[in-house]
Amino acid sequence: MNSKTKVARLSVISNSVLMGMKLLVGLYTGSVSILSEAIHSTMDLIAAIIAFFSVRISSRPADKEHPYGHGKFENISGVIESLLIFAAAVWIIIESVNKILHPNGKVGFLAMGFIVMFISSGINFMVSRKLYKVAKQEDSIALEADALHLKTDVYTALGVGSGLLLICITKLEFLDPIVAIIVALFILKESFELLKTAFNPLLDTKLSDKEIKVIQDVIDKYSSVYCNFHNLRTRKSGSTKCVDLHLVMPENISVKSAHDICDKIEADLDSLLKNTEVMIHVESCAENCVECKYPHKINCKMASTKE
User: Fold this and answer.
1) Spatial separation of the C-alpha atoms in residues 179 and 162, rounded to whole Å
2) In whole angstroms, what separates CA 70 from the centre of its chain?
3) In Å, what is the CA distance from 288 to each residue of 12, 251, 253, 284?
4) For residues 31 and 95, is the Cβ–Cβ distance under 8 A?
5) I want to staple 139 with a disulfide (CB 3.0 to 4.6 A). Which of 184, 213, 239, 290 is the partner?
6) Cellular location of this protein (predicted)?
7) What fold is seen in the domain 3-201?
8) pLDDT, tens only, 178-205
9) Where do the structural domains in the chain lie, given as residue ranges?
10) What does each C-alpha distance from 181 to 31, 159, 278 come to in angstroms?
11) Which of 147, 151, 193, 152 is nearest to 4 (CA)?
């Protein structure tokens, strides 16, 4: 079992425990804010289960049916998770507004409630840090999404716990559904950010400007031996970064030499940008090579006509 699968399993276990704990305490105390956190943890659990299976599937090598690999299963997982979070937030707001309009009893056993919330916050903080660490190491959108859930849960649990403590001090029962609505607004923001992050790669959106700059710098490193490059395209599939470009070489260069240069570019990119697949189409510099950026190269047959 690889590191992605192990940490995804840890998230499933922790979310299962926290969901059960919050649900029992929420029903026992009658607190809608604790119940909202229980619903949030339920969504986190479902998301963790989806992430667990998605990282297992995305790690499979390319096959006949999926020649480009299974990386986008992680992106699909992230989209589903974001929609689940959105649905949970809407439900929390509806229930909270209903409680404000139709109060149905006092919130009891407040001490139990805020103790559970603070314990939940501490557990989620530790698990989310572990998830983020592995997500960055493996460049996993599914684990990053799961970590984002738990990070938000840290703040929302602290908010609910603080709200219950405030109710205990002030005896103002209406604060409970108000805190729940605030929690839901945080969750809505989380779902939007996650949806954007997960959905963009499904549309083959380009890599970040920082990553593209790294790619261009690596290619420029070999500018003394090629004439020009163009049609640079990038996209992402799960944790795999895909790069393709056209590299214009001197007309008299051997196939082996051109291939060796391409291998060096690919190796450098893979060392700087983990999980990178590079496809280079080699072209010969010809008389219509009017966009050659490097007329100083002695090997380029066009150099003499441009100087």
Assistant:
1) 9
2) 16
3) 60, 12, 18, 10
4) no
5) 239
6) Membrane
7) Alpha-lytic protease prodomain-like (1.20.1510)
8) 877 887 787 788 778 778 877 877 777 7
9) 3-201, 209-306
10) 13, 11, 47
11) 147
Q: How many CA atoms lie within 13 A of 163 on its CB side?
A: 24
Reading the block at residue 123, the tokens are: 């557990």
State residue 294's pLDDT score: 46
For 288-298, b/e burial (b = at least 16 CB within 10 A) is ebeebebeebe
Residue 298 has pLDDT above 60, yes or no: no
Cα 254 from Cα 304, distance rounded (Å): 21
Residue type, 143: L
Six-digit token string for 73:
């299963």
Give dist(CA 65, CA 73) in Å, integer.
14
Q: Phi first, then psi: what are they for 288, rounded to 5°?
A: -95, 15
Tokens 């420029």 appear where?
220
